[in-house]
Amino acid sequence: MTLHIHQLDPSNPNDHLYFPTIARVHLAAWLTVPLMKAIYYGPPDAYPGYLASMEQRHTKAFREESDCRFAVVLDDAFPPDDEVVFGWTTTSESNSPPRGKVIAAIKYYFVNTGPYAPSFDATTEEPTTSSSKDTRSWPPQSHEALASDFWSQLVRAREMLTSKLGDHVLVDNLYTDPNHHRRGAGGLLMRHACNEADAQGLPSMLEASPKGIGVYQSVGYEAWGEGGDDGQGVIWVDLERWAGAQDRGVEFTEERIRRDPERKGEGWYAQVLMVRLARRE
Prior knowledge:
Radius of gyration: 19 Å
GO molecular function: acyltransferase activity, transferring groups other than amino-acyl groups
Helix content: 25-40%
Oligomer: single chain
CATH superfamily: Gcn5-related N-acetyltransferase (GNAT)
CATH topology: Aminopeptidase
CATH architecture: 3-Layer(aba) Sandwich
Largest sheet: 8 strands, mixed
Pfam families: Acetyltransf_7
Shape: globular
Protein name: N-acetyltransferase domain-containing protein
Strand content: 15-25%
């Protein structure tokens, strides 16, 4: 079985066919993460709405945001997804779809902090440019209040790190099909993005879920700052505050912190800010 990377190219109409599959892998991966499972809490009959939202958001970024990149890992042991095979258009450069099925994907940005830099918007989970503003509404049976609270913290963290790093590569999302974990697909994609950053002499940043920290450390990322209540190194989420698609309020979380100042008990989720400096040969 051979895994290989395919970099998506907006000028290739065939590469637009991968986004339904990317959305499915994205949702499957997110439903294994406690925070994302709390946000996308609906039963399976809610999944079509989630998938449509993810596909729309990724496709728009791919088409309209020149600083955005997507790459996928394909597995030769499985046939390509039907939408790719049936939608493929023969060109002078190629006469068949790339080999294999999508099992992992990465979305990353080259962030420019110069006079024409993208801005961050607290209503989105990604940087926006003058040509791309996320005005979507959350799909039914998603926890909009929790999502908005988390994204606002994430945006502030990205703004803080951007002020420290200057121009950089932002790894916005990395996800692997849960059926293909521990096969090295995530590491392949991270090395691919790191090589691009290194080629331009740029540092990189991301926010790591607890399960992803090891993958990121293996390619040279380190946790930023010391974490704690100053919010410099960790984005904390009190999942008990938001349990059952409700909001028990800031006071509920403050009382939990008073009783558990190190957040060692149940119900705490930590997204860790990580940075990797450029490496030169």
